[in-house]
Amino acid sequence: MTITECWAVWAFIYIMVLAGLQAIPVELYEVAELDGANSWQKLTKVVLPQLRGLLILALLLSTLFHFNNFTLPFVMFGTHPPAAVTVLPLNIYLTSFNLFDFSLGSAMSILTLIIMLVPGFIYLRMLRLGEVAR
Predict the structure, then answer these.
(1) Among 65, 72, 53, which residue's Cα sits nearest to residue 125?
(2) Percentage of residues in the chain with pLDDT exceeding 70?
(3) Helices in 1-134 by DSSP H: which ranges?
């Protein structure tokens, strides 16, 4: 399941990093070369600082997506998955609709919502800080 999840998200991360790399001005590379920087120094002193915000955003968005991913374990294992792959959204579904314990399912859903509000708030805060910086 982990391999499938990494394969599914790879294109999203790749396109985000590619867009970030294309947004780095060529002048920064030229200045680093004039200062005598080698390839490693260009990577660590020019590229990674320019991509830091983008990589944090990609990590945050992929975390939000993976935490709430219901479809992958449901499609791969069905309604009776092994205990090792019973992720939270699938556990909520099984509790609510297989065991018919809607009160526990709704309580777990509310806790999931509260947990997911934290990275969501961080994401919105990053967007607001990005608008101020422009």
Answers:
(1) 53
(2) 96
(3) 2-23, 26-34, 39-42, 48-67, 71-77, 88-93, 102-133
